[in-house]
Design brief:
Elements: H1 2-9, H2 13-23, H3 29-46, H4 50-57, H5 65-82, H6 85-101
Helix pairs in contact: 1-2, 1-3, 2-3, 3-4, 3-5, 4-5, 5-6
Length: 110
């Protein structure tokens, strides 16, 4: 995911797309879905294809806790860019609740 994030932030969209497609199946089955769809959504966000990015984020199932929170963070960014303030504030409140109720997050990090 970090390689894709770095590539898109410097405008290397073709490289990011090729990397996602080339290496997506090399991940463990438990991580593949979340990482693949998050990376594709991140790419679409930077291309300003916000509706496509939202659609890709909706396909994420399971995965690592980092991917789950990163996906919610990206969704916040999309809502901000679209000026969807009700959705933005609702999601922010939801994330706050998830963080405070998540036993996997150390209390000092909350």
């Amino acid at each position: 995911e970090k390689i894709v994030e770095n590539a898109v932030t410097i405008g290397e969209f073709d490289y990011a797309e090729a990397f996602i497609e080339k290496y997506n199946k090399s991940l463990p089955e438990t991580a593949w879905n979340g990482s693949y769809y998050f990376s594709k959504a991140y790419l679409e966000f930077y291309k300003q294809n916000y509706d496509e990015a939202i659609s890709l984020l909706a396909k994420i199932e399971g995965g690592f806790i980092y991917t789950s929170f990163a996906a919610k963070d990206l969704l916040l960014m999309i809502y901000y860019e679209l000026g969807e303030w009700d959705r933005f504030y609702s999601l922010a409140a939801s994330i706050k609740g998830l963080i405070s109720n998540n036993s996997k997050i150390h209390p000092e990090r909350k």
